[in-house]
Amino acid sequence: MKTFKRLATAVLIAAMLFSSVMVMPAEAATRLSTPSNCRFVKWQSKTMTYAEVGWNSVSKANAYQAVISWADNTNKKYFNTSDTSITFTGLAVNRVYKVRVKALKVNSEGTITLTSPWSSAAYIIPAPPAKSVAAESIENHTVRLQWYGVSGSNGYDVYLTTNPRGNWHYSLSTSSAKSTTVILKKYRSSKFKTYQNYYYRIISKRWVNSRYINSPIPSPSYYAGYFYFY
User: Fold this and answer.
1) pTM higher than 0.70 for the full model?
2) Distance CA 132, CA 129 (A)
């Protein structure tokens, strides 16, 4: 019986040592700091199909790996770069994308020797395509706006102006990706005037960390269309 106990104890100690040896390389492979400030930088095209995402550099890292996916974490694609930004091309105009990045240290033989944890997510949130937005006069100087939804968004903000190169004014919001119709009755608390152009833009938004976020528009004067009454 004593021999059996000693044998069992020896086997248990060996198993513990083996487990420790197996864990150490994984722990050693996450010594780099997590890239901070992973963020949407700008659109690289007016069609919102090319977008740049950037992050802060990490000490001792000489490469980075970025993963882009749909907002629900499906359809992942991985990219490697030595820069602290990357431009994604061929993006769908009706879908929100999520991007994360991790830092790497790669030796001269191309082997990854150190990595970091994945960063927090940056989101690429396109506005509904301008060609999908329709304005329809219904009655009494009232307009119905309709557009195609953006999958992965959590609603939309509608802005109006009489000068697309001037100041834009918030009009109203919707609260889900499928809420793609609004009724506009006023501009800045006043009824719409006859023979006045009213320009509109629709901004997609997503609820992240207890607040709404969005991606900036391609240019300050961007608008999806305009309407007027006569």
Assistant:
1) yes
2) 5
